[in-house]
Every structure is written in structure tokens, then in C-alpha cells.
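In this section we walk through a basic example: taking a raw amino acid sequence and producing a predicted 3D structure, encoded as C-alpha cells. The instruction is simple. Fold the sequence below.
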Amino acid sequence: MSIQPSVVFADEWLAVVDKPAGLVVHEAPGHTEPTLVELLGDVLGGGDDPRRPGIVHRLDKDTSGLMIVARAEESHRELSEMIRRREAERRYLALVEGRPRSRSGTIDAPLGRDHRAPERRAVGGRGARSARTHFRVLESFEGHTLVEARLETGRTHQIRAHFASIGHPVAGDERYGASRIPGLARQFLHSAGLAFRHPRTGAELRFDSELPPDLAGLLQSLADR
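The resulting C-alpha cell sequence is shown next.
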């Protein structure tokens, strides 16, 4: 049984989808399971890459939450440019190990491929490009902190690599040095909010997504300790 994304908004130009964890956005070498692109089918459109029609930004396989996708060539161009110009607000919820030294701040550190592990990203890695993540602490628990992270740039694994670089890896993210958490099969990272101007009508659009059960349940268990 495949994992199904849900469409929370759609018109003739674009859609906003809520992607479950465990679903890859588009096909890649060696991947044989259904992808978001395959499951959405005709919902998507635009762009010159047949493997990823309509995709203007992506989420990692095990990151859940909201994504903007295009439904037409014109909107694909405009949405891609909007993302490039950093005109969309992308808000994430992340549980990180430990407690950051300040209750809010910006991690401003270029990211590139890790020289020792190319599937990872590292500060100052190969081909590093500028990357900025703004964050604020929402709640503290014993051994963990819930933060809201906002992307100014959108590099691969940006939030995961940035928090790992300051000694606070995302909970459950063993690839970036976090400890295994019983009952959590992925990193605690959720795309919880999107806000942007419709590229064709100019209307202000805002969407929110609640934490899925696995992440909400872990938070509750931490609060009950």
C-alpha cells in the first residue's frame, strides 16, 4: 500500500500538497518505490525535466509537510523564480538535541557536499553555496528543544546540516549524528507553514500543517516525563 500525499489547495496554476514521511518527491537512480510525482500525476505540470514535472522545491524523503507545486508551464517559471528570489515563507518545526545557546538566531554558513560522505551536506563542503537558516525556540524538554526554523535559502539538507554544525542535530537524524530514539523512524522535521503571493492572481496565500502522529506523539511523551 503506497503512502498518499494530500492536496490541500489547487487551482489551474498551482497546488499545495502535504507530503507524508517516507515518500520520495521524484525518481532517482536505484529508487523503485512510488514517488510524489507519480502519485499526483496530472496534478503536476510545467518545467523542462520529465522526471520532475511541476516541482519547484522539494522535501527530503523522511521530511513531512507542505510543498508548492506547479500545474502549468507559466506558473512553474514564476514559482521557481519566486523561490529563487526568496519570496516564499517556508516554516519548519524541528526537534533538536540539547538546547541552543540563544532563544533565537541565524545560522549563516555555506553548505556543500561532505568530502567524506557525498550523500551528506557539510559547512564548507565541496561546491559550498551560501545558506541561511533563521530559528527561534518554541519549547524546551529534558535533552531536546522544539524550534521553528525559517529558510532564507533552500539548500539540500539545509536545516539538518545547519543544526548538526552547531552541535544540535535534528532528533532521530542518525545521518547527521543524532541518537536513535525508540519509536521514531525518521528525523523530526516537518514543513509546517507556507506563505506566498499567487504568481498569477497576486492573492496572498497561507497554509499550515499540523504535526503528523509520529512527531506529535513523541512531543507528548517528552512533555509527560
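Looking at the output, two observations stand out. Residues 73-84 form the longest helix (12 residues). The helical segments are 36-40, 73-84, 158-165, 213-223. In the next section we compare this with other chains.
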